[in-house]
Specification:
This protein is mainly α. The protein has helices spanning about 1-10, 15-30, 30-45, 50-60, 65-80, 85-95, 100-115, 120-130, 135-150, 155-165, 170-180, 185-200, 205-215, 220-235, 235-250, 250-260, 270-285. The relative contact order is 0.04.
Length: about 290
Amino acid sequence: MTNTVYRQLECRPDSYQEWYQQGNALRERGCYEEALASYEKALEYHPHDYWAWYRKGAILEELGFYREAVDSYAQATAIQPNNYWAWYEQGCIYLEELAIYQQAIACFTNVLVAHPEDYWAIYRLGDAWRRLGEYERAFVYYEQAVELRPQDYWAWYRRGEALQLWGDLEAALTSYDRALVIKPQDYWTCLQKGIICQQLGRLTEAIDYYTQALNVKPESESAWYGQACCCVLLGFYNRALSSLEKAIALYPDKYLKLASSEAVWDKLRHHPDFISLINRNCQREQ
């Protein structure tokens, strides 16, 4: 395929600089395969050039060749170990595309060697540790992130999520509160606050947060079901059944099974309206 690409090039440069510049021009035009071929030719002239390896990695990433992309970025970092971009881009691929989180951590840690207060590397380290299930370590990095950018919604949200998954629910609520100051009525934050308040037995508060989440996203089956569970525990049976029916309408298989099996519904198990709701929706699914 490479030979075919070369034949399509508008000219045949005869120096590193010309091949590299042609690669840049083709990249800007969206001609990624031709740009890749040009960078490869540039590297034949100058195999230890940081930018040719970096640009080659970026093109491979654009084309979806992620393992080849990280190999090119690794070549770039071997040439310039303290250059921010190749380490950062390599880390993002390991984090988002390849799900190799320990490698992502190594890359972002190398970013911090030269740029110890880089917000994005710190934030991504939090993401990597969170995805590994290391919530305490994730929290440490999200804490650093909010210190660097105290008005950043996502840093506060992820900080709250790490605390929630770690089991520190009250601290998680405080972090989510800060996220809501920055982004009021945010669906995800309201939903998580509803879930936490429900876990803490603060059912009226949970209903309020689920309602706020539903005002933003009326098709949220999770919020409808969470609200339904809180209502049945408080004895608001009509509202509980109404919310349950909305959850079932959005995701029948999941919520019919939960309504039929979870103990929270035992109080209504023999109630004619509950039986009718379950039977009616089961018939629709047949």
